[in-house]
Amino acid sequence: MRDDSDGNELVWDRPEPPTRPAPTALSRSRIVAAAIGLADADGMDAVSLRKVAAALDAGPMRLYGYVASKDELLDLMVDEVYGELPPPSEPSGEDWRAALRSIAHRLRDAAHRHEWFIDLLGGRPHVRGPNALAFLEESLAALDRTADFTDVADVMRAVRTFTAYVTGAIRAEVGEARAERATGLALAQWQRASVPYLRRMLATGRYPTVEKVITHDGEEPDADTTFEAGLGAVLDGIAHAFAR
Amino acid sequence: MRDDSDGNELVWDRPEPPTRPAPTALSRSRIVAAAIGLADADGMDAVSLRKVAAALDAGPMRLYGYVASKDELLDLMVDEVYGELPPPSEPSGEDWRAALRSIAHRLRDAAHRHEWFIDLLGGRPHVRGPNALAFLEESLAALDRTADFTDVADVMRAVRTFTAYVTGAIRAEVGEARAERATGLALAQWQRASVPYLRRMLATGRYPTVEKVITHDGEEPDADTTFEAGLGAVLDGIAHAFAR
DNA sequence: CTCGGATCGATACACTGTATCGGAACATAC
DNA sequence: GTATGTTCCGATACAGTGTATCGATCCGAG
Q: Is the CB of B45 under 7 A from strand C?
């Protein structure tokens, strides 16, 4: 038995096996890339060890040489997406709001490119890979380097609040996008109360405010501006509550 | 073929089958209750149609008379939790912050009682059952009835922002709780950088701010006050951005 | 009492993640 | 070059999943 006395060993603790002259050269990153490809194309349900292996012309068990379990593969996928995020465009110095805005948008863009990403984020015990750590570092540093934030505890609180909003909002967006795609009905159509179930519910009179909001006219703001509006509000709140 | 021309039929569209003199009387709510019991006790992985059925002394296929698919069962579980939420303690009138705070805490309490709840929230196409609708109604009404909010579009924006934060924060909390339970390490121990993986990462020097935050001393605020602090900030932001 | 139609649930199927372990492929020793 | 020791690959197997199918069964109508 190998020394696995550290019960909390992480993926990133183990080296890849040496690239021996295998049938076809495999690697952790090729496996992760294949898995991401499948997830992007056909959703998370399409990511099974068998399918990932098949995409690499390998038997299912081949993968266990590089990855200890499916959960570990999922962790690696998440960290890979963090790694894809473009670096901050320019050191934004004292303007922490601009920095956080940039961070939020880069994460959101990635989450839209990989819709499964947001599902995996909070679900598993959430171990922080190197790229996720780098992402956290960027968020923390954006505040810590400014004169507005002098207490590290406040920096932490601010980043937690920020992250909670961003992930929550992205999740809601992605959920709505999926619902639209699944039902074929844009939210606008729900709004006109054309869905029989919803109409019947509203007819009970138990949801007057929902009805009012849903049937009010005025063009729907798109997802971008909705996200932006909420983000602005949250940054305002953070400024008031935690800064200076 | 029955009339299912409405391709978007929901669970709540179909009546329960009449309670015929079956071996043991089954019902949608008994099934949902059993599923929730399993999920609470042993996590979401323990919720399989076979196990739920077994808990009710029935064969797996019995359930399909009451529920069209497992996904539908999950939808019903979610709505059931919404239904468990205690009603607002008192009509809080003009004080929308108090109302939203109350809503947030009731949801958070429920999510802690049923840790699986938050996982299911954003995942599926997220169809709104009667109880979820009632919850949405309460949130919207809390703002709409005040003088601070005159534009329904602002009410909508405010509620979306609020919900995004609350769900995101709960998800983060639950994820941390799970991680603690899985690794046996409280966050405090991570903070002392006692985990070898983390220590090695920090030793690279690439995460100076993370290191600073993690190793600073000062007692950890508990989850309650962290949630509350973030919530306060977000409500502040909402007041500034969308109210009056 | 007989028959027709509805309904229930045992069986079956395709698929999942992963433990096991026979055998092949490699490195070493002579 | 051969024999031996060792490692590691991956085919097979297993227990579990969600659900389609359809024969057996039971109920009510005539």
A: no
- Residue A171 CB-half CA count within 13 A: 31
A237 and B242: CB-CB below 8 Å? no
**pLDDT tens readout for residues B187-224:** 666 666 667 888 899 999 999 999 999 888 778 789 99
- Cβ atoms of B53 and B47 within 8 Å: the answer is no
- Cβ(B230)–Cβ(A164) below 8 Å: yes
The nucleotide lying nearest B61 (C-alpha to C1') is C9
- A11-68 sits in which CATH class? mainly alpha
Q: What is the DSSP string of B177-230?
A: HHHHHHH---HHHHHTT-SHHHHHHHHTTS-HHHHHHHH--SPPPPHHHHHHHH
When the candidates are 1.20.1250.20, 1.10.357.10, 3.30.1120.10, 3.30.465.10, the CATH number that belongs to A82-242 is: 1.10.357.10
Say which of B137, B160, B183 has its CB closest to residue A207.
B137
CA distances from A93 to A100, A240, B208 (A): 12, 20, 16
Contact A172 B122 (CB under 8 A): yes
pLDDT digits (tens, 9 = 90+) for A79-92: 999 999 999 887 77
Rounded to whole angstroms, the Cα distance separating A165 from A140 reads 16
Distance, CA of A81 to CA of A175 (rounded, Å): 19
ipTM for this prediction: 0.89
Distance CA A91, CA B36 (A): 49
CB-based contact A165:B168 (threshold 8 Å): yes
pTM score, two decimals? 0.90
